[in-house]
Amino acid sequence: MGHECNDASKEFTWNDDVETKSEVTEIVLVRHGETTWNAAGRIQGQMESELNEVGKKQAVAIAERLGKEERPIAVYSSDLKRAKDTALMIAETCFCSEVTEVAALKERHVGSLQGLYWKEGAEKEPEAYSAFFSSQNDLEIPGGGESFDQLCDRSMNALEHIAKKHKGERVIVVTHGGVLRAIYLRITQAASAGKLLNASVNVVHFRDEKWSIDSWSDVSHLSSVGFLQRGFDGDSKP
């Protein structure tokens, strides 16, 4: 694997003209640090919210951990600020000069639920709330939201393009709970992804056009910082 970060532009563009190799590509998927809205139980979706003090400490902790591991060739991030801020701390510690933004890695648009508190979602936006937790994966969330299938398709497409761009290399991708859930369920075909915790490390491998999970929801680096036990859980109603 290489030892210099990819000198990519701030705007990531797909490149389908890649050579087929058989090496394992390792992608370290990181959920952003805790935000003010995470702590308050407020639904973010694609709206912006800041890392809180715990979230900033989490970002430092995960950066320190990843800085001690094999150096990544590149760091990618969702274009939402909470992910970018987490990614910038990681990139600095891993000696990567730049974070490449990928809009397709942003959180799921959850329609009219965005900005509400989870505890009030069922009452204020019952149709959107029901659609979010529906087992009907092609059902779009009222208010301009995405279906789960749409989220899975764009998330996996983005991940596959990154994997093919970095055959046989190690990269870090900072994204969101909903995206991580989509990736896990699409790869494993499991019934549930469980809780996706802030600042968790989740490692996937891509080889010969096939995905596998190497490790999932590791928060051992947060022992002295702490994290929200409830995490992101799109599999069950709060």
Automatic annotation (TrEMBL):
<feature type="active site" description="Proton donor/acceptor">
    <location>
        <position position="107"/>
    </location>
</feature>
<dbReference type="Pfam" id="PF00300">
    <property type="entry name" value="His_Phos_1"/>
</dbReference>
<protein>
    <submittedName>
        <fullName>Uncharacterized protein</fullName>
    </submittedName>
</protein>
<comment type="similarity">
    <text>Belongs to the phosphoglycerate mutase family.</text>
</comment>
<feature type="binding site">
    <location>
        <position position="82"/>
    </location>
    <ligand>
        <name>substrate</name>
    </ligand>
</feature>
<feature type="active site" description="Tele-phosphohistidine intermediate">
    <location>
        <position position="32"/>
    </location>
</feature>
<dbReference type="GO" id="GO:0005829">
    <property type="term" value="C:cytosol"/>
</dbReference>
<dbReference type="InterPro" id="IPR029033">
    <property type="entry name" value="His_PPase_superfam"/>
</dbReference>
<dbReference type="InterPro" id="IPR001345">
    <property type="entry name" value="PG/BPGM_mutase_AS"/>
</dbReference>
<dbReference type="InterPro" id="IPR013078">
    <property type="entry name" value="His_Pase_superF_clade-1"/>
</dbReference>
<dbReference type="GO" id="GO:0006564">
    <property type="term" value="P:L-serine biosynthetic process"/>
</dbReference>
<dbReference type="InterPro" id="IPR050275">
    <property type="entry name" value="PGM_Phosphatase"/>
</dbReference>
<feature type="binding site">
    <location>
        <begin position="31"/>
        <end position="38"/>
    </location>
    <ligand>
        <name>substrate</name>
    </ligand>
</feature>
<dbReference type="GO" id="GO:0070179">
    <property type="term" value="P:D-serine biosynthetic process"/>
</dbReference>
<dbReference type="GO" id="GO:0036424">
    <property type="term" value="F:L-phosphoserine phosphatase activity"/>
</dbReference>
